[in-house]
Amino acid sequence: AQEMLSNLQTKVLQSIDDENVKTYEIPYEDGGITLESHSQYIVNCCMDIRAEVMTRVHQELLRNPILDPISREIMRHYRLCTAQAKHCFARDKTLNKILRYITGGENHPLCLYGTCGIGKSSIMAKAMMQAKEALGKKAVVVVRFLGCTARSSLLGRTLRSLYRQLSTIFPGHGLTIGQESTELCKAFPRWLELSSNERPLVIFMDSLESMEVSTHDETEGVSNIKWLPHRLPPHTRLVLATNLEVDNMKPLRSWENWPPEAFLEVPRLDMSSQMKIIEKWLTEDGRSFQPHQLQELQQVLKYMDPSDFGTGLLVRLAYQECCRWKSYDEVTPLPRCTHGFIQ
Q1: What CA–CA distances, in Å, run from 58 to 54, 63, 65, 309?
Q2: Using 50, 70 and 90 to split pLDDT, how confident is the model at 216?
Q3: Are 284 and 322 within 8 A, CB to CB?
Q4: CB 123 within 8 A of CB 91
Q5: Is the model's pTM score more than 0.85?
Q6: pLDDT in tens, 68-92
Q7: 3-state secondary structure of 9
């Protein structure tokens, strides 16, 4: 036993850098390790760990200064964007239409719409990255995944954080950032006019239906859509994404301020696209399904509840559930709707 313990100790020490190893000596008496001597060792160990952690934290803070609230907000949305873009597959037609709008001369916003789980967020994330690449470093590309952070859950907070970001990018603008939502909404067109041929501005705002309006704002006549501009300045583009079936977005369906081409529906994925996505995920994960397992997955996707058919969320949930199967397992009946998979 002593030899095995010694061998284990040697292996552990070999896998750890010398600077991360601390040695303590405990006096051994005739009666063995006493409570007093052992407790002192624990106290010393805790103090050393505390000092080491504080040193490492201090070093990291010096290397990476604490960001101000607006910078943290911007970083959160860009990280979400990077993560979401990885899940965008088989959406080339929609992405090409968005890119043509961004690089074209239209003076109206573009609103993507589709059912919940269709994949609007991943499309918006991918489109944002394509916009940065197409327009180059001179362009200002801003993104907000509404409802994902505290500063993007209410209309007033969202616009205030957006204006603060733009004020650092366009210095000397002469605009003030109000406190009341009514002021912030009225100021939105003026902030959009900060763009120029040298510095075009593209704003992506996903999940418009998730942004709420406070009770106070409602009494002041502020709504989820009244703040949206009718027309845009020449060098500004505004890309929105929402679910028009949600109550607070239904008025947008009959929005007369925008032409019909301002609305772009996100289509459901056909079976061919769904299976290509599955094959891509299998390749990335380095695994495969048995023929009878793959057949069961195809049947589930094909005969899914009509309201869920062709949504990116359902394809992902079905794939993840099938990944629980072993190669020698018989298939187990799969749910036929998104809610069933979540349950």
Answers
A1: 6, 9, 10, 52
A2: low
A3: no
A4: yes
A5: no
A6: 888 889 999 999 999 999 888 889 9
A7: helix
